[in-house]
Predict the structure.
Amino acid sequence: MPKRELTMDKLKRELGIQPPKELTEYVREITTIRSKIINCLRNDGELTVKDISSKTGLPENIVFWHLMTMFKYGLVEPIEKTDDGYYKYKLRGEAHG
């Protein structure tokens, strides 16, 4: 199967459009953060925001914001509340327990 061309690369090649450097860096940062969260949930299973923050080194508010965005788009789901009142999250479609 041939490698898919990235949309950004196609725009650059066909239309000569170059995205602003700031936008490219922002998208790269978001992708890196989400990858860290997804990998953490994939490797360690059900985790709270605090757990993910601790394991990834990302600030809790950043983890929370990205988890809520990922929840909105169906990538993660809350599964239970801990005794401390925090929700544990898992990747949608992956077994837990």
